[in-house]
Structures are given as C-alpha cells and as structure tokens.
Design a protein that fits this description.
mainly beta, 32% strand
C-alpha cells in the first residue's frame, strides 16, 4: 500500500522500533502495535493515529 492510499479512517499497525532492534528478532515477537485508525494525514506520509475508541495516540 503506497502512502497515497492511506486515508483518514484507515486501520493500521504502528511500527515498534524497540522490538525490531537487532538481537530481538524472534519468530513470535510482534513488530507492530495496534490496530489504530488514521485520524489526520500530514505531508510526507506522516499521520496522526487514534485508538479504535477514538482517543488520540500520544506522540512518544
């Protein structure tokens, strides 16, 4: 799916960079958190996410 196909309301997984660090690769380790919904589309394929209940996701 390209960035132009992501729209408000699309369900996505959030990449978990901590789980994907070298040495943490196990077949049972999930690398995505979610699902979340896109609440706002920004430029350069940047998005704001919200929980399935509609609460904004905190920016780390």
């Amino acid at each position: 799916m390209s960035g132009s196909e992501f729209r408000v309301g699309t369900m996505v997984l959030k990449w978990d960079a901590r789980a994907a660090k070298p040495g943490n690769h196990k077949s049972s380790t999930p690398y995505g958190q979610g699902p979340f919904k896109i609440s706002t589309c920004k430029q350069h394929n940047a998005f704001k996410l919200e929980t399935m209940e509609g609460d904004p996701l905190a920016i780390p």
